[in-house]
Amino acid sequence: MDTIGRFAALLSYDGSAFHGFQRQKDLPTVELALEEALNLLDKKGRRVKVTGAGRTDRGVHALGQVVHFDISWPHGPTALRKALEANLPSSIGVYEVVPVDFAFHARRSALWRKYAYFIWKGDCRLPHLGRYVWWNRRGWDMDLAKKFLTMIEGFHEFGAFCRKADRPSDARRTIMEARIEEKGPLLKVSVTGRSFLTNMVRIIVGTMDEIATGRKSLEEVCRLLDGGSRGEAGPTAPAKGLFLWEVRYDPMPFGCEEYNAVTGNFIL
């Protein structure tokens, strides 16, 4: 008799193919695609429920999304990874599937999440990267951009950096690290924290754009981090530049060399 076990999966996906991670009626989502594939694989014919580490919005990508699910599967995790990926659309990849304890929860067990946002500063268009970067040709003062990212690190009131309709009563969050890397005209902004508000990283990037171009001052950032309104912050940067980059656990259930090679080499 087949038993039910819990598995965790490390995924990547092209968010331009989906209306976000979370299931929505009559719309393609990552959660729907995963559950439809897993329903075909469950040996007991059960409906499999997937839980993700983060609910990415429409158009947002993932390089290191983590999900867990309970399934009846007697053939081992390697075979499950191959069978799952074979039944998914090409816009979703599965790096690794591992058995985990039933106490493991993709969202609640996470220590922190890292998001990465990519910006292309070149004068010419990059058609093959158009779905994954924000083409922003405005001149930036990189010292101001870095100072802004340093200012948002730590425990602050981030209500100004949340979509107005979704601002919670307690919008305090902790940013563990915020940094920017340059590879020629390609910029990567990384923001790490335990949890995030709706559109928070994209509004951080949109506000950084206004700081780095001189349309807002660093002095205004202090007010934004002290209960400022959404209208005082910058615009919401386009979804296509944002990736859920990494989710960390202790102990870490994954050791995928392919994933580590991709993230370690700053590959889109």
TrEMBL record:
One Pfam family in the UniProt entry: PseudoU_synth_1
Annotated positions binding substrate: 115
Reaction catalysis annotation: uridine(38/39/40) in tRNA = pseudouridine(38/39/40) in tRNA
PANTHER family, sorted: PSEUDOURIDYLATE SYNTHASE, TRNA PSEUDOURIDINE SYNTHASE-LIKE 1
One BP term from GO: tRNA pseudouridine synthesis
Residues at the active site: 57 (nucleophile)
E.C. designation(s): 5.4.99.12
Function: Formation of pseudouridine at positions 38, 39 and 40 in the anticodon stem and loop of transfer RNAs.
Subunit structure: Homodimer.
Protein's UniProt keywords contain Heme: no
Name the UniProt record assigns to this protein: tRNA pseudouridine synthase A
Family affiliation: Belongs to the tRNA pseudouridine synthase TruA family.
Chain ranges of the Pseudouridine synthase I TruA alpha/beta domain: 11-106, 152-250
CDD domains linked: PseudoU_synth_EcTruA
The keyword Isomerase is assigned to this record: yes
GO molecular function, one term: tRNA pseudouridine(38-40) synthase activity
Top EC class of this enzyme: isomerase
Classification via Gene3D superfamilies: Pseudouridine synthase I, catalytic domain, C-terminal subdomain, Pseudouridine synthase I, catalytic domain, N-terminal subdomain
UniProt keyword list: Isomerase, tRNA processing
